[in-house]
């Protein structure tokens, strides 16, 4: 199978690597349950997996899949503590996305509407 070539588009946030990182972060956050988990971990500064299941209100297996996606993207960490896993938010992982959104939302940015 032949490799697909794509043009590297200019980006606000910097390199193509940054663009891929931002896309991975955005995709991981693109579900209401995952946003709920991130908000919960931000408020609580860490949480046991079963507490997340209770608070989110989804099946344990579904919640575990959402946690896996967030962990794979680097947005959260999970440490085994006995028979449980304690999850914590990794705010620094969201920095590329925050930078992009700040650039886009900045007053005077190209495409910004004057009020």
CATH architecture classification name: Orthogonal Bundle
Could you name the CATH homologous superfamily? Winged helix-like DNA-binding domain superfamily/Winged helix DNA-binding domain
Number of folding domains?
Answer: 1
Please state how the strands of the largest beta sheet are arranged side by side: 1-3-2
CATH class: Mainly Alpha
| β-strand number | 3
Identify the overall geometry: elongated
Q: What do the pLDDT scores average to? A: 83
Uncertain stretches of 5 or more adjacent residues = 4-11
Q: Gyration radius, to the nearest Å?
A: 17 Å
- Report how far the terminal alpha carbons are from each other: 51 Å
Q: Helix share of residues?
A: 40-55%
Written as H for each helix and E for each strand, in order along the chain, the element string is HHEHHEEH
- Which strand-content bin applies to the residues? 5-15%
Q: What is the fold-level CATH name, i.e. the topology?
A: Arc Repressor Mutant, subunit A
Multimeric state of these chains? single chain
DSSP summary: helix tally: 5
Helix-and-strand structural type: alpha+beta
Biggest β-sheet strands, sense, barrel: 3 strands, antiparallel
